[in-house]
Specification:
Elements lengths: L2 E4 L5 H12 L3 E6 L2 H11 L2 E4 L5 H14 L4 E4 L20 H11 L1 H14 L6 E5 L6 H4 L5 H4 L4 H19 L4 E5 L17 H12 L10 E3 L2 E2 L3
Parallel strand pairs: 1-2, 1-4, 2-3, 4-5, 5-6, 6-7
Antiparallel strand pairs: 7-8
Helix pairs in contact: 1-9, 3-5, 4-8
The structure holds NADP nicotinamide-adenine-dinucleotide phosphate.
Length: 235
């Protein structure tokens, strides 16, 4: 039996990933920072709910303790993320960038990944086939962000792409440090969710595809890589 935790799984890509992994036979913990939203999502999915705010040390520690007491963890999907917006609803571009805005975004997208990974690593390392999927973005690709004439080049935000570059670096360095772990970064593609006011061009079914695929890899699967549904991406 494979046990999987997905952070931020009460909606969007995390919810769809939970649905698919349950269908594949996983026992899934729906991580949610709100108890009510988490419970509702878990009931709809036939999953277990765990209260987990990735920005809060105590919350993450309590979640790890609860999952450990229930029997441990095989797969961690670091999915919770925010795009970060200014008060007027725009993306945080260079002109709007402040240390505070950057810190808020990094607290969820980067320090959240570190906090959760650090707390669950002891459980994962006791699994026979531990897997971590870090939900990054194509906006975390330096190659793409510097490729003039592409939509990725045209994206004006600064803090969000910077956070996903950091997620990619975490993935590579964790992979080298823990060779027994399969840990990869994935780019779901531009997907209609609350993150982008549902302006994304893909469905959540399409967006979750690579997250699910990388959550299902076995011990002979890749590690330290960066993928979208079509294959490896340039860093
Ligand atoms: P979403 O629908 O807004 O879902 C984000 C999830 O993260 C929600 O469950 C949200 O919970 C949760 N979350 C936010 N802050 C949290 C915190 N501090 N602790 C725990 N959970 C928290 O967005 P999504 O598009 O599915 O995003 C999922 C991931 O995909 C993110 O990492 C995002 O960067 C990445 N991504 C998305 C796209 C896209 O086009 N949608 C493209 C590339 C990458 P609440 O309901 O409580 O807010």
């Amino acid at each position: 039996m494979t046990t999987t935790l997905i952070t931020g799984a009460n909606k969007g890509l995390g919810f769809e990933t939970a649905r698919r992994l349950i269908a594949a036979g996983h026992t899934v913990y729906v991580g949610s920072r709100d108890a009510g939203r988490g419970r509702l999502a878990a009931e709809r999915l036939g999953a277990r709910a765990v209260l987990l705010d990735v920005t809060d040390d105590a919350s993450v520690a309590a979640a790890a303790k609860a999952v450990e007491a229930d029997g441990g963890l095989d797969v961690l999907v670091n999915n919770a993320g925010i795009e970060g917006r200014t008060e007027s609803g725009g993306v945080i571009g260079a002109a709007e960038l402040t240390a505070d805005r950057m810190r808020t975004l990094f607290e969820t997208n980067v320090f959240g990944v570190v906090r959760v990974t650090h707390a669950f690593l002891p459980l994962l390392r006791r699994s026979a086939a531990p897997v971590v999927v870090n939900v990054s973005s194509g906006l975390g690709s330096m190659a793409r962000v510097t490729a003039a004439g592409t939509p990725t080049y045209a994206y004006p935000g600064v803090a969000y792409p910077a956070s996903k570059v950091a997620v990619n670096m975490l993935t590579v360095q964790y992979a080298k440090a823990f060779p027994e772990l399969r840990i990869n970064a994935v780019e779901p593609g531009f997907t209609a969710t609350d993150l982008n006011g549902n302006t994304g061009t893909q469905s959540v079914e399409e967006g979750a595809e690579i997250i699910v695929r990388m959550a299902l890899i076995g011990p002979d699967g890749p590690t330290g890589g960066y993928f979208d549904a079509e294959g490896p991406l340039p860093w």
